Amino acid sequence: MTPDARLLTPALSPLEKALRPLRWRAWQAFRDLEARQHPLRAIFWETTHRCNLQCGHCGSSCGPRKAPPEELTTGQILAAIRTIAEDLDYAKAARSTPGRTGPSERASPSVSYLPPGQPRAPGLPNLPVSFYVTGGEPLLREDLFEVTSEMHALGFDWGMVTNGTLVTGDLVARCRRAGMNTVTVSLDGLQDSHDRLRGAGTFRRTRRAVELFLAEAGIGSIQTVEVATCVNRLNIGELEDMRDLWAAVGIHHWRLIQTSAIGRAAANRDLLLRGSDLRRLLEFIKENRKVSATPASSVNPHRRQQRPQPWMSLDEEGYLGRAWEGQVREPLFYCPAGITVGSILYDGAIGACPSLPRNLVQGNIAEHRFMQVWNEGYAVFRDRSWMRTGACASCRHWGDCRGNSLHLWDFKEHRTGLCHLYLLAEAGATQGAGARASGNPDTSPRKPGVEPSSTGCGRAR
Asked: What is the pLDDT of residue 65?
């Protein structure tokens, strides 16, 4: 290992070094079990591709436009949600709860157990699946609260990702009445940087949205208010100032996401992080997590004044190497697309992570029940041995990485579009850099064939 690489590698205690191999073996076994059992935990509802903004780094190239004819109607999405609730056997849970009335036999897909917006009966268990409402901009759908109220009534927890510019006090109250648990507001830097990416005046309106949501946090259903920042070369120098701002505002969680080359960002490659930028981001998160609130206290608004700064973490954007995993986010690296995460896209397509290409769509809610597709499809997601090709085939990190995140895969070239280990090694920031310097090709991460290819920004967790 070269001296520079040694200085840039995160320091671990002797105990951490001794336990790390055991931890990774246990994690690999856990991921294998998850892939076999594929317990559904989260469903993204991609409400629309419409947006009131036209951001320079939008991975989906959303913008102001009319609703396309294929966008799901209210009736279509409600029917899908009800069949999911039925197939998760919520009717049985509802019948067994004191004070809760329900059909004597298994409910049909069209049955709604409570009027929209009516609170669930005390003690009624939530379903083990949460909905994450994304877009586009979800607030452009006029039926948003009709649909989300039904989610809540049927027992689903739900959260939303929004750009915040359409948020008012009345709208926040409607979110609370519809049972929203978590809201993620996209804010990409200080005022000049954010407005450059998202449009003049958007920073002021988005910050106001965060403050409005925080004012409601803890009063009703809203428990967590988080900010998601797409980190790029325009705002990488503002991390410390952004941290201080969010600490003053009092947000609960700050999600940091690496901007990637897809959609409009593909035409703005000067935004993409270099290896040295990524290392800087990781160091920032690692050091600040030492003094951040724990996740448990960060979601308690009544303890907000006790928190020196919000809990922060790096979003799931790919394998970083054992030196960084566990230092900048809670779980070790794991791409759950199609294993514990599914999606209903704007046109009814059944998929996994909304960032994935359409060739991975598994069906459509107009023709299939979601849970049937979930239980019988998704084979390509649950056995990823097909990704062990090219540079990944002989890489010693395969057991931990397994081809990196699926949204980073280049399906045209049949190889990973981005290797974070290589990116960091180029900056002399990992043990891989030392291996490359020593001339041992078998222990170094290999150079990917193409640039990154994920949306990243705004994905809810």
From this structure: 80
